Amino acid sequence: MANKRVETGRGRKPGVVKASKKSSTSNRAFYLIIAVIAIGGIAALTYASTRSNAIVNASPVDTTLPLVKSEGYVMGSPTAPLEVIEFGDFECPQCGRFATLTEPDVRKNLVGGGSIRLRYIDFPLPMHPNTWNASRAAACADEQGKFWEMHDALFANQDHWDGAATSNPDKVLKQIGDQIVPDKSKFEHCVDTKQTQAKVQAHWRLAEARHVNGTPTFVIGDQQIGQVINYDQFKQLVDSAIAKSGKTAPAAEGDAAKATTVGGAKDGSKKAP
Amino acid sequence: MTKRMWMALISLAGLFLGAYLTLYKFGVIGTLACNVGSCERVQTSRWSIFLGLPVATWGVGFYVLMLALSIAGLQPRFAESRRLSLGIVLLAGWGVVFTAWLNYLEAFVINAWCEWCLGSAAIVVVLFVLAVTDLRETRAIEGGDEE
Prior knowledge:
The complex is a heterodimer. Chain A is an alpha+beta fold.
């Protein structure tokens, strides 16, 4: 074993001069391999971040589809030049990523700045066992004007009530909702009796009718995007849709104070007209 | 190539794997490539955060340390250092324990598997085996020197 060490240049025994030549060649090869792996790794990460952020699942909105009138939950000014629709599933990890990573910027800059009005419509997917419970609970919170607060809490705590976490989601959902709604007993009764089931079903049927086949799906102007998108892409699509519509977006951005109906803010949610 | 060279190379591969998952956690990478299992369920679960940081980021730190120690071990000054070998074994051993806990969570708590996490687990086990072999070789050198 000791001889092997000499061969690799780590010993200081007779024969070390010959070994050191071998060793320096070996070291050079090693550092070359390290450099190749490092360059390859950086290139792979760059490629992955570029490719995975590309919009690959966008299609023009079919104008024969049923219009969205009063379904869902709306945040933002009724006079905003553009309405963006999100078909979402509370138990979908990608929707959770959008809600927690991207949506805060969308709300602050685009909803708050008056460029868009955001509409969320439930599309509970069959592979998520607790998503209907979550949609019903969010609708119950909406009855007390707290949809968007509940929306945010559901996505922020997705792993506390999802199918992997519990087989009794209503218990956890009530705990979450109780911290948000003013009338806890009304909320709990609403959840227990599934009062809002018909509303969620109506949302689901609308999504089905519009051929939504995954979540999140965004309708921005004449484009339907069936994948998660980052803020820059979202803004680009919004700007393009507003430009196409011929309307003008408010010049100032990022003034959260203007957002009188931004979810999570004290004014709470605003129902669709 | 020596054991320490192999450890450095494998640690570098692990580092990029951890960086990939970290970039996903921070929203730089939109969607994970995941052919087997349910990577996003695992990566968005509450267990994907440890002490306020994504588990993947801790993984990056682990692999950076392993890489640094392995490359340090190639320098003549530390070439026969038993302490360094022991340090690498302890670090890799901690990695095996932490990875075993994560795999337990995937199997019995989250009920989903992430192929990238399994890849990292395999890397950590290989690193541990190499580290133990390296320590035994260093001990053998010390034994030989004493004769």
